[in-house]
Amino acid sequence: MAKPTPLSGFPEFLPAQRHVELEVVATLARTFELHGFANVETRAVEPLDQLLRKGDTSKEVYVLRRLHEESGKDAGIGLHFDLTVPFARYVLENAGKLEFPFRRYQIQKVWRGERPQEGRFREFTQADIDIVGRDDLPFHHDVEVARVMLEALSRLAFLPGFRLQVNNRKLIQGFYAGLGISAEGIDEVMRLVDKLDKLDPAKVRALLLDEAGVSEEQADKCLALATIRTTDDSFVDEVRALGVKDDLLDEGLDELATLVRACAPLATASVRIVADLSIARGLDYYTGTVFETRLDGFESLGSICSGGRYDALASDGRTTYPGVGISLGVSRVLVPLVQRGILTSDRSVPSVVLVALTNEDARAAADATATALRARDIPCEVAPTAAKFGKQIRHAERRGIPYVWFSSAAEDGTITHEVKDIRSGNQVAADPATWQPPHQDLRPQVVTLSTDSTTEKEIL
Amino acid sequence: MAKPTPLSGFPEFLPAQRHVELEVVATLARTFELHGFANVETRAVEPLDQLLRKGDTSKEVYVLRRLHEESGKDAGIGLHFDLTVPFARYVLENAGKLEFPFRRYQIQKVWRGERPQEGRFREFTQADIDIVGRDDLPFHHDVEVARVMLEALSRLAFLPGFRLQVNNRKLIQGFYAGLGISAEGIDEVMRLVDKLDKLDPAKVRALLLDEAGVSEEQADKCLALATIRTTDDSFVDEVRALGVKDDLLDEGLDELATLVRACAPLATASVRIVADLSIARGLDYYTGTVFETRLDGFESLGSICSGGRYDALASDGRTTYPGVGISLGVSRVLVPLVQRGILTSDRSVPSVVLVALTNEDARAAADATATALRARDIPCEVAPTAAKFGKQIRHAERRGIPYVWFSSAAEDGTITHEVKDIRSGNQVAADPATWQPPHQDLRPQVVTLSTDSTTEKEIL
């Protein structure tokens, strides 16, 4: 077979790179579990009618067909393109066996049948948390998911900083209604204002007048609302100053102010929260809180962590399940950082120690040394061949294994053990039953390489 | 939307069941890492020509098609049906960036485009370990993968016992050659002897005479070889007693004896190793050691953990990569045990503590209590509403949360904290900054329910 080449849109990692992803996933899972979120894994496929529900046929779905299906027909199932559709289906299917409010996290691959092109993933990993209620779900859960994700992001200290941008659909819709814009006009205005991240305000203003048919004063107020950004609840006064009155607006202002006040104590230099009244989440079916997140220095990636409140995450016609959730694009963040060489790990194997071999007859003794180390949770491996010690040390070096273990038997049968830190060259006597490496050597460390210098900074 | 129904062949777990799977995966991963195996995750898809290489078009593959592909053509890619094909491709694609011998583990979903029918999975999880060399790979790595998997299985104490059955293709092929069976006849004899687990020996003997064209004496010796089963290296004498001489047979006997002797010390009452000279692994491309594994009491599942040695796991025409590996069918073991109610967990959420609420105004104080507990790695959640305490306790009970935390503020503002173990009813004063639950309460526990009684046995 000729050397295979990568498939566009299906990123894969080398082992040292994959370790970064494992660390991210473990940190996310641990944080979510500390907050009582249970893990769920759904199957990779859903029936096509589920994937295209709400009549949205614009989704880029991969449809499955059995290779040996004689009729040539597809199997009526496709790969899921997000984790919300399968979760909503899982909630309905298992509603009688779940306890509500139900908190779950889900970290899985999703697929999109995109045309192959630069920067578009066709397979990627997402990490979702959602809280779903039966019939109702108190607003404090909106605060909860925001706080949990902020905590998770701040534990990922080796990533660039984040800016969590929050808004509230009730606030926007109430404001537009208070301006006298019709119910039908509100969606259109929201869609046009959402273009502010791509078009300049004068152009959006023109579109508002032409396409949404609002007045100049209405357009100016809509644009004024969308420019409000505050890191505390002072946005309330700024909105009030625009002189619009509406009950739904009041409700939205109150919810957003509560959310921002509750999240502000979690902000750090690298993880910030901002009430950004331009955020609307386009065509998605959110009904209250909305979230987007920008990665510092990688704003061109768009939002890497988004979500919000659905009044009806799922419904079987009799019972409605409201939900609030947020989804982190794990691949969306990691793949660019790993591919540019900014993130990797300091070794390609879990091993802390390579147990060297004097000769092949010493393999059983070397295995015994390794077993003693593993009994105390020290990952290690035995040299594959009894090559010259210099070659065995290079074997460790190439993998980033920090220690090499040497044993020698005296004529009376007593065995002497020494362990060498090959980074410093220090070699000391050691006992396999008690020797302990420094804590930070026990696992591979995530290493960040800045793009504009060759200095390495070890974090984690 | 009407209540969705499960898709045949795509098993899913409820949260308490999923916890069992998470424990299994974490235990496997930890064991593999202790032995220096690095994690790799490959994409879910491979080009169809890779999936069907070696001309084997019998595989049940799911082919992908973009929903919006106007030509109606499929995308030329399909979901992988095992983890060996993608790993072989990954090794070739990244050979220049990997260090050999390369140890990797991979725990992922695989898919097979089976017709829907009882007991056939169309999506399932496998856990593979392999060691791959460049040009050569010493035999001691065969011993290594067997020992690592035995150790991993014995750490899964909540599963039924296992029997790892080992054999060696060189032993079989050398024995047949020594009997005077032709090179072409050997594969046919191996294929027929492999039917001994389904057909009775007299029937297989008749097939050997009729289809493989061997003599009565040859057939009897082939059957005699296949009946040999020993838990130590005494199989060598039993084979020698059959009076067949051949160099390849000697090599096979020597390898298998070495493997059995090295694994025997790891055997326990529930995890056993046996040299079983009937094991051949059918049509697979193994060239030396072969493995199969039976689960005690679930022999009808067939082999739940199989593998062996390939002289050419991968090859690019210039360089050959020999490998040895073993693959555990995680879903194959867990799904029947979980679906029959034999395995579950004692709670459906990670939370150790439910922090109760006196009234909604006390939510910030309850959040502070929860934050203090989480800072010491104690998973917890705050009650969703300030219902009556009886209702809040039932909220915990239904999820299996063992502790409920109560706080009350005196008139002078001092807060009193108490924590109740709702299993025993014991309630004691506690400080959120120092209270620690017993270690076994920190994580959900896997619970086994025997099929023929209602007694629960907590393990792990």
List its traits.
homodimer; 460 residues; alpha+beta; BirA Bifunctional Protein, domain 2; Rossmann fold; nine-stranded mixed beta sheet; five-stranded mixed beta sheet; 13 helices
Average pLDDT over all residues of chain A: 93
Largest interface between protein chains, with number of residues from each side:
A-B, 91 and 92 residues
| Sheet/helix structural class of chain A | alpha+beta
CATH superfamily of the largest domain in chain A: Bira Bifunctional Protein, Domain 2
CATH secondary-structure class of the largest domain in chain A:
Alpha Beta
Number of helices of chain A: 13
Assembly type: homodimer
Q: Sketch the major β-sheet of chain A.
A: 9 strands, mixed
Poorly predicted runs of 5 or more residues of chain A: 453-460
Total number of strands of chain A: 20
Biggest sheet strand line-up of chain A:
1-5-6-12-11-10-7-9-8
State the helical fraction of chain A. 25-40%
CATH fold node name of the largest domain in chain A: BirA Bifunctional Protein, domain 2
**Total tally of structural domains of chain A:** 2
CATH architecture of the largest domain in chain A: 2-Layer Sandwich
Query: How much β-strand is present in the residues of chain A?
Result: 15-25%
Distance between the termini of chain A: 40 Å
Shape of chain A: elongated
